[in-house]
Amino acid sequence: MTTDLKDYFKLGLDSTENAGEQPGLINTIRTPVDTQSRQLSRVTFKVPKIGMLTGDSHINLRFNTNAAGKHNLNLWNGAIGAISRVRIMIGNKVLTDLEEPALIETEKLYSNDTATHLVDFERNFLGNDVRFITDKDGNFQISNDSNVILSKQDNATSAKMIIEGNKCKTYGIPLRKLGAAFLESQSLPVFLLGSREMILELTFNTNCAEYVTLPGSNASMASNAVEVDLQNVELVTTHVMLDEQTESEQIANLRNSPAQYPLTDTYTIRGVLPAGTNGDSATNLYRLNIQNREVHRVLLAFKRLKGQTREFTANQVSDGCGDEELQVKVNGLNMFDRPVSNAATIYQLLNYYNGGVSMKVPYQVFNGTKYSQADLDFSNGYIEFNHSQHYIGLDFKNGNAGIQGSGTVMTSALEIDYSNTPNDDSGAGTQDAQHTLLFYVSVSKMLTIASNSITVTF
């Protein structure tokens, strides 16, 4: 069930005696499941408390099916969509708790990574497999290359992402894509924990239609047609080794001066976008009670209701719900001089959210406006890609360096006034449907490790 670690790490080390214990080297540890519950579709791990935990640590998982047909992971984000919730606890204190990590990572994947990196690198570990091409008339379609196989009926399947019986490759999902994004910038000194445990808890989607497709079939799938192989889920952690003297000195220093680890954490707030009517505008006010927290960013994602079967995307989509108008009130003041209604401006807001990086998807895939969806001419097989990756990003960083002090401290509830006018009678037919509105809130946190206590503060 294991993957070839050479695909993940190239240490360039010669074989020496006790190499794994030498300071400065990276030690790789495989950890089996500590507890599992098939009823809750949940597994937990005890993270090894050795050296410094790095961002290369990841989860290995694979899937099983007893249903007929060649099931396929969705093309947008592959195996990440199988995970519905991630919690990391240190000494019984919750360090991070992120629901629906797949959508925020999809936005990040298609913004920060190049198309080549997505297909040639991320695809081998995550299972995502989207590559678009544009014809001479400006219409988009899936590229018919070596990665995606397109039949004459416009049914796509990915050659290496097929789940048939117990034939399924093993996927590796980095912890930094599962709520532990702080590992990208700084390794975590787990050796300071002593007798206190660091627990990783993963909860998987019980409805496989959330992340699995059945290309070529219009029949709905049973919710348990594909399941995560819970018994063989595996945690693979990488640790930078420190010498014994350094570790002993740092642990002794905790008695006089607790160690502090600043980080940016993201958590999810759920809302509801009610069903609307094509051509009619509706306004909804959302108040996020995030007072007394230093907020860096907020991302809005519009997810379809659970259990909706799709040919290529499963339910790993964030819908563009028509023509939009947005106003945000921060600490009692309007963020914009006037409500934002221009699609290009909303796209630019997402660029600011990403630090100046644009989301690399076709115009019709991001936008759900009446203009972008009018007179589209492409194969019916691609309709579900229309307005399927639409996000609204809000950036509250103030330009300061570091983590603490670089965001905006909220003294009152954040108010988001959102209006939309559904318009897709001839499109995918989902803009006027009810959606789950997910707010991904990124805030500053401080992990403090003392000799006899652990605290996590905002």
Secondary structure topology:
Blueprint: E1 26-31, E2 35-37, E3 42-46, E4 52-53, E5 58-61, E6 63-65, E7 71-73, E8 83-90, E9 93-99, H1 101-112, H2 115-126, E10 132-134, E11 140-142, E12 148-150, E13 156-158, E14 162-163, E15 171-174, E16 198-204, E17 212-213, E18 226-228, E19 234-240, H3 244-253, E20 259-273, E21 282-288, E22 294-304, E23 323-330, E24 333-334, H4 343-353, H5 363-366, H6 370-373, E25 391-395, E26 408-409, E27 414-421, E28 435-449, E29 454-457
Antiparallel strand pairs: 1-19, 2-3, 3-16, 4-19, 5-15, 5-19, 6-18, 7-14, 7-17, 8-9, 8-16, 10-11, 12-13, 20-28, 21-27, 22-25, 22-26, 22-28, 23-24, 23-27, 28-29
Task: Write up what this structure looks like.
The protein has 458 residues and is mainly beta. The protein has a single domain (25-457), classed as Adenovirus Type 2 Hexon, domain 4, CATH 2.70.9.10. Helix content is 12%, strand content 34%. The protein is built from 6 helices and 29 strands. Strands 20, 22, 25, 26, 28 and 29 form a 6-stranded antiparallel beta sheet that branches. It is globular and about 70 Å long. Mean pLDDT is 83; it is low at 1-21.
